């Protein structure tokens, strides 16, 4: 990791702020700087321990118990692997939630990235107005995660919603999309795709980095538009595509707000919007099965780690780093 | 085709059909903005028009939805706005302070295990908050902080402890761009790590702090999951949690007021967008996490 340590020049000079002249020298300075390092790091360290590490371990422990918030800790029962067994063998709604989440991510993420890349290619020319378009396309990414917009979305795809009004203009009879188990998840996918602006902005920045000389050379060699895209743009852009893909996939797995709003917290209609996180919320906070929910959380964490690892291991085969840097 | 001027391969590539491209872009803008315009339009339609008028804009401007929505619940919506503003602004302060301190340590100071801690910090970047919510709820509840006199502590404590690794990372990246010669100069003038932080890094990190402030405000303002879990009393509700109360009331008559309050709830984010558009767009470019 090139990120971790930039080589510092050895510090010397009278700046240590300490009077121990006997211990002066790089060692002493490093000592005081080391202390300062931990002083500045202390809020983060306390947070890491108290808000992240200890809760994670607690959650791991709870995943082997039948804890519900109502019984005191002293009476918590150790149930071994029962929660995990139940999850994998005896809980159809768990697998249903897994399927819903995977479907959502597998459809929405590629389409969102395709939209982002397509629009970025359209915008990738220096002409006036590009800033305005870029801003307008980015706006949904700022608003789209909110409850307010989810409410708007659900109503838009309602029986009386704007979408059906538009359809009726061209003579198609709509349906109450959000109440239809076959279509409810699709409306959430459309909401996700609508927020293509954030990856688009990242694509645009990546496109700016592609040297014009490459296109010139390609066109001298007789490559048409499509060949240029395939052989210049795509390989040069592959690190950015990879970055967006990892990020959007992880985000996609965590969709919660819109599914909650659409189903009023139930995952309906007929569990069609039961995203993993919503299922976890219902299990932990509605049904108060916190031990079981903790097991779900840990499997979720491991799944996301595994998927990220898979991305990174396959990335070697298709991600092209022109600066020769190996990641 | 005769290329009269022998300009050696034009700087700009042949742009195809700019009119066609502009047309496509305008169509996409229309599709992207349609839901937002429809939202605003619906918020000023009468109940009757919401059902029957399929146009974007109302025939008769009906601002009554706003007053109806404002006082739709036992607790006025103004209270929810104050609550949301309080949580968001304190989050801004917490993130700014704590992430700046951590970032300074990572970017400038040398101490034992720095590399390891940095790797841990990067690791927490990808940690989904849903994984931690159950145990965090249990811990805060055991400490008596859920639904107590200070209902927002469970939301705010993590923000004062630099747990939003994205901002730490953003600031580390920024500080690495601050020339080290400045540190050295201050050191020669007798400044220690604290003096360098106070007189060099803090003032020069203003842009990173502003980016952090804008993003943490918007994300907290829009955040729903944590607020849903940790807030239990109606008078403590923030705007997103309060908005879901509209969904519970199944009657159709609530649609107008619900849209009116939705519009109002998005207004601060929209104003931030208008004021800081360039900065926001460039902000996600620096490290791009989240949307």
UniProtKB/TrEMBL annotation, chain A:
Residue ranges of domain ABC transmembrane type-1 in the record: 98-311
Record has Electron transport as a keyword: no
Region feature Disordered, mapped onto this chain: 1-28
Membrane topology: Multi-pass membrane protein
Transmembrane regions: 38-64, 102-123, 135-156, 183-207, 295-319
Alphabetized SUPFAM superfamilies for the sequence: MalF N-terminal region-like (SSF160964), MetI-like (SSF161098)
GO biological process: transmembrane transport
Keywords: Cell membrane, Membrane, Transmembrane, Transmembrane helix, Transport
Domain of life (superkingdom): Bacteria
Keyword Membrane belongs to the record: yes
Subcellular location: Cell membrane
Recorded GO CC terms: plasma membrane
InterPro entries found in the cross-reference section: ABC_transporter_permease, MetI-like, MetI-like_sf
Family: Belongs to the binding-protein-dependent transport system permease family.
Name of this chain's protein: ABC rhamnogalacturonan permease yesP
The organism of origin for this protein: Micromonospora lupini str. Lupac 08
